Amino acid sequence: MTALAGRPTVLVTGASGLLGGAVARALVARGDDVRTLQRRPSGVDGAADVLGSVTDADVVARAVEGADAVVHLAAKVSLAGAPAEFHEVNVGGTRTLLDAAERAGVRRFVQVSSPSVAHLGTSLVGAPATPADPEGARGEYARTKAAAEVLALGRDTDGGGAGRGGLRVVAVRPHLVWGPGDTQLVERVVDRAAGGRLPLLGHGAALIDTLYVDNAADGILAGLDRLADAPDVVGGRAYVLTNGEPRTVADLLSGICRAAGVRPPAWRVPAGLARSAGGLVEALWRVRPGADEPPMTRFLAEQLSTAHWFDQRATHRDLRWVPAVSVDEGLRRLAAHYGGTGPAPAAARGSGTHEA
User: Residues near 251 by Cβ (< 8 Å), separated by ≥ 6?
Assistant: First the structure.
C-alpha cells in the first residue's frame, strides 16, 4: 500500500460508524490518503478499506503498513456484555494497534476516548479532562476505554513512554456525539419516545454537554494536526471535546424528539429508583441477555440524572479548535434529515445555555 507523493496516509479504525465515517470523509475531503480498518465496508468514497478486527495482529499490521498517522475509533460500545469481550476489543485491540504502529514507524496516533473514562458517577460541573480511571469508571465500556487511554498515552515518546519509533499520542474524548444517521443516541431516543418508553429521570434538570458530529470530526482532525504542529503541547495529554453549550436533559431530549416529529417524554421516574432498577436489569442481562441494548442500566441512569459539562478552555487553546455548528443548528439539520424544519431556537423556548 503506497500513498501518493506529498499526501500523508492516515489509517482510521472504526470508519463504518457515524463518527469514524465522518472523520474518514473529512480526511478524504482535504486530500489525505485515507485507509480504514473495520469489520464491514466503511462506505467512505475515496478511502481504501481493510476489512477485519483490531484484535487480529496480521490484519492490523497490513493496515498500518506505510501509514503516517492513525486515528483509532474502533471499540466495543454497549451498555451490557461480557467483560472479556470489552477487554479484548477495547484494551487488547488498542495494544495490538499501538504495537503495530510503532513497528511500522507511524509518527502520530489519536486515541479517540470518552469522558466516561473519568466519570465516577457524580456530577461533573465545568470539569477539566481529569485522568482516566480504569478502576473507578462506571461500566465495562468506560473501564476498558479508560485502560485503553492510559495504555495509549503511555506510548507517547516525549511523555516517558515506550514509543520506539518516535510515536506521539494524544487522546480526545468526544462527549455524546449526535447528528443525522446516529443510531447510538438519536435513534434510541426517538424510538423509545415514539413508543412511550422514554421517561425523564427526576426533574430532567441535569445539565449535559453534547457534541454535534461535524464538530467532533473537526476536533479529532485538530488533534491529529496539532501532533504534527505542536507535539510537545498536546502529546501525552487528553482533551474533552464538546459543543460548550450545556442543556438540561429535558431540553436535549425534547429537541431531538421534536426534530424527529415525535412527542417528547412527559412522564418521570425518580432518579434513585432508576439507578436501582438499572442495577437489577444489568444483573438479569448477565444471566439472560436480550437481543438489543437493555432498557436501563445503572450507568445510563447516572448519565441521565447527573450533570456532566466540561471546561473547554484548554481544548480550544491547545487544539486551536472551536465548534462551528451550534446545538440549535444541529437540531435544524437533524429535523431536515427527518423531513421537518426543526425546533425553535433555544431562546424562543425559554431555555438558556451555559458556556463551559
Answer: 346, 349, 351
Please give the sequence-ordered ranges of beta strands (E in DSSP) within the chain, or none if there are none. 9-13, 33-38, 48-51, 69-72, 108-112, 124-127, 168-174, 177-178, 200-201, 207-208, 211-212, 238-241, 247-248, 268-269, 308-310
Strand order in the sheet with 48-51: 48-51, 33-38, 9-13, 69-72, 108-112, 168-174, 238-241
Residue 47: the pLDDT is: 97
* pTM strictly above 0.85: yes
The string of pLDDT tens digits covering residues 183-219 is: 888 988 898 888 888 887 877 888 989 999 999 999 9
Which domains, ranges and CATH numbers included, belong to the chain? 9-178+210-245+309-324 (3.40.50.720)
If one compares 274 and 29, the residue with the highest pLDDT of the two is 29
β-partners of residue 310 are 127
Is 141 marked active-site? yes
**Is it the case that residue 92 has pLDDT exceeding 60?**
yes
Instruction: Tell me which H or E stretch contains 204.
Output: none
Q: Write down the residue that cell numbers 476516548 correspond to.
A: 113
Q: What is the pLDDT of residues 164-177, one digit of tens each?
A: 558 999 999 999 99
Q: Cα separation of 231 and 225, whole Å?
A: 9
Q: How many Cβ atoms are within 10 Å of 30's Cβ, its own excluded? A: 11
- Dig out the grid coordinates for 355 from the structure: 458556556
Active-site residue (options: 141, 212, 239, 338): 141
